[in-house]
Write a structure and sequence with these properties.
The chain is of the alpha/beta class and 416 residues long. It has helices spanning 21-29, 65-68, 73-89, 112-124, 135-139, 143-152, 167-180, 198-206, 245-250, 279-292, 310-324, 337-340, 347-361, and strands at residues 6-14, 36-37, 50-51, 101-106, 158-161, 186-193, 236-244, 257-266, 301-303, 332-334, 363-364, 389-390, 395-402, 406-413. The protein is 32% helix and 18% strand. α11 links the parallel β9 and β10 (332-334). α7 packs across α13 (347-361) and α10 (279-292) packs across α11.
Length: 416
Amino acid sequence: MDLKRVVVTGLGALTPIGNDVSSYWQALVNGVSGAAAITKYNPEKFKTQFACEVKNFDVQDYIDRKEARRMDLFTQYALVVSEQAIQDSKLDLDKVNKDRVGVIWGSGIGGLTTFQEEVMAFAKGSGTPRFNPFFIPKMIADLSAGHISIRYGFRGMNFVTVSACASSTNALVDSFNYIRLGKADIIVSGGSEAAVTEAGMGGFSAMKALSERNDSPETASRPFDKDRDGFVLGEGAGAIILEEYEHAKARGAKIYAELVGGGMSSDAFHITAPHPEGLGAKNVMKDALNDANLSPEKIDYINVHGTSTPLGDISEALAIQSVFGPHAFKLNISSTKSMTGHLLGAAGAIEALACVLAIEHQIVPPTINHFTDDEQFDSNLNFTFNKAQKREINYALSNTFGFGGHNCSVIFKKPD
């Protein structure tokens, strides 16, 4: 069968460095760090006392107070960015066939804030189980997609992908496949996460996954730097409207980029550590390239997973060199997590946005906080350290890898 073409027609962003797409992009290009001391609770007893929080967010600016109380923060974030993306797409909701509009969202953890609050309240009580009747609907990850579809009356496929830090890229790949198979005209896709809580920070800290650079939070996320000591936890959301090409063209939509390939693989190695030779990362990039029917030489920019962990950065760089060969040294590579921190299940969404915007503006955002070269990386690789670079970008690839060995990649193309 002939596969449909899939394009990007709307964007939404709520990140630690900008609460809309324009401010997010400007901060990326200017190398702004979103890391600072935690404000959501008193972190003084924790080994890591900083994170990349969303700033100046008041849910009542977007959602009615009574309605918002029935949602966890990650769902509130999802509704905010989906509204941004729908508005940006200029969809006429009275004219689209809502039976053919779906929502496929990603979240690695879901309602951690709600879960923590309810359990702590129970533990402090008399032992009588008095839970909020919205406890479960607020907590479970699929309610983010459910709320989006209910709000707009979208009656197409509706679910949430959960594959740890690969969740929202997983959602994009699934959305891509459903549209090109003709199962939907439009899918609202992306991801959201709100895990900057005592439980979230404490859990990742116990795993020795987080940076402990409390004296300099803004320089703590250091992908590919010799002195990297772990990732910085972030929060927020990103939304992308994916649409069948002819459908978008018929309504005169602005097309930001075309989604041309998606890959998925598993390391099948360890619950948290990457494969030391980057085997799963190699396979997923090859899968995405094959899906797009592209040679490696066509890729201009890779937004890497690049979390700033000692092992993860090495395995990804090795995988890139293996897949791209000599062309690896002609690529621009950057980790925008150096600025946003790691948004877990929402990371893939905001990093896919970074790729789309890089194509639109023909600028590669930097990997900030590079101070010391690490001899474990080939010095000929261009990690776009510390300063954005202008270059021709026709194809951009985004990698996201998650605990459990989940790997997803997507490839975007400059529109015709």
